[in-house]
Amino acid sequence: HTSPSSHTSPSSHTSPSSHTSPTRRVIVYDLHDTVVPYEQAWGWQRALVDLVVTEASSGDISQPEAGVGYAILLQHDPVYTLGEGSTTDNLKFDMDAPPHPIHRIERGGEVTFHGPGQLVLYPILNLKLLKTDLHWYLRQLEEVIIRSLDTVSGIEAGRIDGLTGVWVENRKVAAIGIRATKWVTYHGIALNVVTDLSPFGHIVPCGIKDEGKEVTSIARELGGDDGFLMAEYSEGLMEGLAESFGLEVVQIGGHAALEALEAVHKL
User: Fold this and answer.
1) What is the pLDDT of residue 213?
2) Distance between CA atoms of 149 and 216, rounded to whole angstroms?
3) Which of 70, 105, 177, 218 is the 20 to 30 A CA-CA neighbour of 44?
4) C-alpha to C-alpha distance for 232 and 259, rounded to whole angstroms
5) Would the pLDDT of 38 be above 80?
6) Alpha-carbon distance 27 to 251, whole Å?
7) Which tens digits make up the pLDDT trace of 106-137?
8) Which residue has the higher pLDDT, 70 or 90?
9) Does the pLDDT at position 3 exceed 60?
10) What is the predicted pLDDT for the residue at 2?
């Protein structure tokens, strides 16, 4: 595994705002340069969901300064995930002998791949403090990515009617799959930054069989990787999260993030 970043002091991004009321905050555990086993991060998500649900039921969330939740930014070891109701027809391999581990999880959507070089953002947010509308939430997650691509690299990306995710023309650069419990979200965004795209060849990504569409990465779109894309896009996603949701993003990185996540997981 790559080593976590050395910084531990929180830093923040705040959304531009014309009003003077306090901006709600989200704490982001920034492990963008750390490769985390899928099941470990899955456990962290569930623990944070429980924490946010508990905070919502026991605390005074009406206060403007109350946090809306947490998010985790990381990379994964190579893994395929299947949405809760997804079909195995989109797998081009024997389920008993997959090229990489495979997990069926609670999110919506069909099969996708996670691996090093892909930034995965898991927001665990209390939508009762934002907007209780999952369609709106999906569009805002897409907006996070669209803003990031424009800000960091000047890549013009957008949506395709009827399909989730973010596209550069007919090439999908980011997948989105979510779940919510008592209006608290989990799962989230997978942005292909410098990802090896070959594992996508073993599946029909997100069940999209249109031969005119394919998976891409930021490095492919730019014609290469200058070595800074992962760091630049980790910042880009934080800024996009702040701007798209109108939040103050407080980042906690490195060992402090790992210790905090493990402590929540043990509650």
Assistant:
1) 83
2) 13
3) 218
4) 24
5) yes
6) 6
7) 887 778 899 999 999 999 999 999 999 999 99
8) 70
9) no
10) 39
Q: Which of 206, 241, 249, 252 is catalytic?
A: 206
Say how far apart CA 228 and CA 236 lie, in whole Å. Answer: 12
Sign of CA dihedral 239, 111, 165, 214: positive
Predicted model pTM: 0.90
| Whether 31 contacts 253, CB under 8 Å | yes
84 is a catalytic site residue: no
Structure-token pair, residue 78? 């190579």
Q: Which residues contact residue 24 at a Cβ distance below 8 angstroms, ignoring those fewer than 6 apart?
A: 64, 65, 66, 67, 68, 129, 246, 247, 248
| Strand-strand pairing, 248-253 and 25-36 | parallel
Alpha carbon separation from 114 to 37, 50, 133, 199 (Å, rounded):
10, 24, 27, 9
pLDDT in tens, 166-184: 999 999 999 999 999 999 9
Residue 202: both structure tokens together: 């073993």
* Parallel, antiparallel or unpaired: strands 163-168 and 171-181: antiparallel
Token pair of 74 as six digits: 């990381």
